User: Fold these one by one.
Assistant:
Number 1:
Amino acid sequence: MAILELTKVTGGYTRKPVIQDVSFSLNKGELVGLIGLNGAGKSTTIKHIIGTLLAKSGDVHLNGVTLQENMEKYRTSFSYIPETPVLYDELTLKEHLELTAMAYGLDELTLKERSALLLKEFRMERRLNWFPSHFSKGMRQKVMIMCAFLVDPPLYIIDEPFVGLDPLGIQSLLDQMNVKKQEGASILMSTHILSTAERYCDRIILLHEGRVRAQGTMDELRAIFHMPDATLDDIYIVMAKEQDHATH
Ligand SMILES: Nc1ncnc2c1ncn2[C@@H]1O[C@H](COP(=O)(O)OP(=O)(O)OP(=O)(O)O)[C@@H](O)[C@H]1O
């Protein structure tokens, strides 16, 4: 069974749809890249998955249920790392981790064990009692990343994770993603860093003007675009120059 399944999702912010007929799924243990130009609809698609926007038509199943069918199961089946960190100014790093643990019903021991590993991995051990106002941009992002991994859900949704992290931070994140994948979790990641997406993603979904233009492994994409030796950058540029696919 797919952990995440979008079926013909059409939606947006106003009556005019931003994404149309978006269908794709993620299987257990897969890392899938959501790729597209600025304004293609990546964040809008993610908002429909996490439930901040509701589809005008079509549906999203997560862990076998829609948000309407079982809100509790749906919400606890994923964690989300937004593009721009959202932190509580009046809570320390330690309190952010504690709050996340409480929201997801983690016991004290699990919180202690998992946070010790994450704090070490992301080199934040000495910042436990700091407030967000003293964090750099990358550190703020690391707080969100640590909270997401603390939960240990079956699905991670990560919006443009690499901007703002230093190379060590990026490597730590990729390592964590890999560990979780090995344990069977699935990851949906949107990014503009195509070389990283090409290297790490099992499959790629190419969004263009609110629609899925193509999806598959790199080899499948090369076949679809008739570009046998192409990199993801090459394919992306060809897709970006297509004028009329939105109408087909
Ligand atoms: N809050 C909003 N209200 C109305 N329209 C919006 C809102 N946010 C985004 N849009 C519109 O939806 C379309 C898709 O935007 P979206 O943010 O999903 O793109 P994206 O693929 O994530 O782009 P980027 O790579 O720049 O982050 C754009 O035309 C944008 O103007």
Note: Residues 13, 18, 36, 38-44 surround adenosine-5'-triphosphate (CB under 6 Å).
Number 2:
Amino acid sequence: MEIDNTPSSDEAKETDDDFAIVLELSEDDPHFDKKKKLLQNKGFNPKELVYLKSSPGPDWISTTLKVMLQIARIIQLDEVEIYFGEDDACSSVEFYSPRNEVETLNSILSLLDISLSSGMCMQMNVLQELREAIIGMIHDFGDKNSVKTTFLENHSCGKEECLLQWGENNGITTRLQIAYVEGAGRGAIARENLNVGDIAVEIPVSTVISEELIRESNMFHILEKIDGISSETILLLWSMKEKHNCNSKFKIYFNTLPEEFNTGLSFGIDAIMALDGTMLLEEIVQAKQHLQTQYDSLFPTLCNDHPDIFPREVYTWEQFLWACELWYSNSMQVMFPDGKLRTCLIPIAGFLNHSIYPHILHYGKVDPATNSLKFCLSRPCSEGEQCFLSYGNFSSSHLLTFYGFLPQGDNPYDVIPMVQILRLNRKIVRKVTPD
Ligand SMILES: C[S@@+](CC[C@H](N)C(=O)[O-])C[C@H]1O[C@@H](n2cnc3c(N)ncnc32)[C@H](O)[C@@H]1O
């Protein structure tokens, strides 16, 4: 089917309608049915063809882009956005979330780039015009939503510089430098103007801390025999000891880690009192109880049975909590070429802070061609600007509990209680409204 602004079938014959950009909702999409319905509510099909004209009129580019955006926004919705998208099905929703918007613009850009690089299209000039318009929209979005960072000048970044040097010696390439920033510890700052598609940091797999590395350690054969123990727990126990290992390959990385993380898990009594009666306190207490149970199931048994491998002074509850906070707040999920998803610590990339308006959206897949992780920009980052990542679609309570901060701006993922309220509200309406 042709979209609104394309010619009717008679008109189509008079135009160069031989090349079309295809916007398609994948049948593998876990939300295919809901998205299809949303598309149909707006008059679109799951597969739409946007035909190019050789001499488009003055409004053609903007009208065409508007339609492409409407379709791509729905294709790029995530679960929470779909929930609200369904409510707004008949209204003319233009904006779902910052993540959705950046994802949408980048998905159209990549379709245009594929068409341009195929060289099959007669209307290269039109594709170029569409591309420039999309790039302009990505820039505008960044300009409207850039977060001002205040740098703290009186902090030395000696340890961080050492890590950057270590990274360089071990094949890490980065266009970021590290600085202390107000309210977030260290942050990663662009050394030069970075554009959409540029790689801000590239990390070879050999410099990533993952399960594979731990298999070589002398504690692995003991831990793997423990019933139900997860890879994450094994990694956590390894990092508690490796932190003190002077010969560790990752010594310089461990040197840069904070003594304290200040996530919700180590909130002091004052903070806990201030949260009295809130759902957040419940979340923190439950998470901590779970960790305490886990610790008690492992210690002091491991220290008693293998004192040389699990020294008592290293495996204290306080150090266990530190390692939990390290892994919760600094690890990333990475997909390896063998198809396995592993939890990893990633030196240097670990300095990237989170934002609701991130520059980098996709970073969790090893490129098999280079055996490296590439942190590519989905929107530009100017020289001297702090470069942000998206840690995921987390609510503020999750970010506070496991990362120790509240994000700036309206967090679109603060919706769970609201979703519950809406559902409850609907149930009440249904009950009181006769059929
Ligand atoms: C992966 S580390 C990022 C580097 C970290 N800032 C540091 O100095 O090591 C994640 C931690 O950074 C801090 N952080 C990340 N994003 C933040 C933000 N938007 N505001 C405040 N703190 C943030 C939190 O302490 C979080 O636990």
Note: The two ends are 38 Å apart (CA to CA).
